[in-house]
Amino acid sequence: ASLDTGGFVVALVTQLVVGLALGFLVSLVFAAVQSAGALIDLFGGFTLAAAFDPQSQVQGAQFTRLFQMTALALLFASGGYQLIVAGLVRSFDAVPLVGADGTPGGFALGGFSGVLVHALTQMFLSTLQIAGPLVVVLFLADVGLGLLTRVAPALNAFQMGFPIKIGLTVLFAGALVMALPSVVSSLTGDAVQAITGRG
Asked: 0.70 cut: is pTM over it?
């Protein structure tokens, strides 16, 4: 391999860009689960209590932070981090440090853009699949309370709506947390496929 300064700098920048790109693909796993929590916070009425968690660098309300911490704990408890590290090691096959002719390894920007678009699409789809059922339930609760207010205005159903929506959110979010291990396992597999170029 060429050891001159130009070749070294090109290889260094290439590996830096590849590392940032692969790290971004892995962070999409957590973004999907965290976005699902943000949707639940939004429709459940918890966004007024949003705060910034400086330790995990997460801005959101209760379920946003809960889902992000749960996904992180499940990643380490299930051994998913080992799959991601193994995938990062195998990424050197897809983008070698040195090409066959001794020049720095190439990075196909067009191929990565396709992987990035697919990964972002999967993130949004996963977010809707995780939080979708609860969002539909909360929307139907709002519609039901609106109809109840229209039928019996003296009942003041919107004042009753806050505890009802909070109860529904806590009840169904508990069921979602129980489903998170399989979701995180599936998203980890998708991230490994994306970083090894098999996605």
From this structure: yes
